[in-house]
Amino acid sequence: MKKILVLGSCGQIGTELVLTLREKFGSENVVAADLKDACPENLSNGPYIQLDALNKESVRSYIIDQKFSDVYLLAALLSATAEKNPDFAWKLNMESLFIILDLAKEGHISKIFWPSSIAVFGPTTPRIKTPQYTVMEPSTVYGISKQAGERWCEYYFNKFGVDVRSIRYPGLISYKSLPGGGTTDYAVDIYYKAKAGEHFTCFLKEDTALPMMFMDDAIRATIELMEAPKEQVKIRSSYNLSALSFTPKQIFETIKKIIPSFSIEYQPDFRQAIADSWPASIDDSYARENWGWKESYDLDKTTMEMLNNL
Ligand code: NAD
Ligand code: SER
């Protein structure tokens, strides 16, 4: 019987992941955990616990006591927030991972999901159709923490047989919960402004292409990877995953087809340098070949979903 813990459950991914896992495996079998003291309304259909991913003692005793089979570790500082607090970003992103990896090494968890990011790549990486295996010299603290995390995941798999699985998510677009401080957040904010009939000021230049994905695709990919037979999961660092690639100008034009009065201006800030260091598009052929990944949302379909549901 599966018993699942989602640690960092109240954020952009966690909210939708918990709801989908509960539909699939039963609400009582999926515990949401986060720093937040109260369970958000949208996760109140199942168990919730306040848990600090950095409190080693509490995390260990709770996981050992509750006998979780699968742990999804989502607590982290994202790229833009991490640049403002690099010491703490490194601490949170790395220490939380070691606590969970060690629990699995000791046999208290069967399977771990830990997300990586396109931020593992850097300015010396080929930007178009970035391959799975290529130059990786990340220039942000977030990217450095994700790259180090990937190395440790693979190490724990090779040395200790820890069943850890990971995806290098692109920027994620969703309407059920807000993004938490990333460089790709503009691609969610733009829909809120369009829907509210307001002018949008974009913090990236109009021609900055980045890899993106609608949240439903990201959640499906995550669960498909976690449910794939062990022998199909051939990469234990993290899988490239791709769906969309677009610029602020392209997303604006897609929205403008539906809301002709929508207007935009571009005022790049410190996040422009982060975006410039990341890939424009991703080659995810290993995910497609190994465990059958295929996206179902293009930019037009994503835009319809966002504008219809916000
Ligand atoms: P988010 O910022 O929206 O959510 C993170 C959640 O973790 C928040 O609810 C926060 O309260 C919680 N949290 C923070 N510190 C905690 C702690 N010490 N203990 C317990 N909970 C804590 O982030 P997200 O977008 O949902 O991202 C989740 C994971 O996916 C992160 O590892 C992130 O790096 C990765 N990722 C996200 C994206 C994206 O576009 N959203 C892209 C690539 C990778
Ligand atoms: N969406 C994330 C960010 O911008 C990518 O990891 O930080």
From TrEMBL:
Query: Where is the NAD-dependent epimerase/dehydratase domain positioned along the sequence?
Result: 4-234
The UniProt entry, under Pfam families, shows: Epimerase (PF01370)
Keyword Oxidoreductase listed: yes
Please state the Enzyme Commission number of this protein: 1.1.1.103
GO MF term (any one): L-threonine 3-dehydrogenase activity
**Lineage of the organism:** Bacteria, Pseudomonadati, Bacteroidota, Flavobacteriia, Flavobacteriales
Source organism per UniProt: Fluviicola taffensis (strain DSM 16823 / NCIMB 13979 / RW262)
Q: Does the keyword Ribosomal protein apply?
A: no
Q: Which family does it belong to?
A: Belongs to the NAD(P)-dependent epimerase/dehydratase family.
Query: Which SUPFAM superfamilies does the record associate with it?
Result: NAD(P)-binding Rossmann-fold domains (SSF51735)
Q: Which keywords are on file for this protein?
A: Oxidoreductase
- What is this protein's record name? L-threonine 3-dehydrogenase
* One GO term (biological process): L-threonine catabolic process
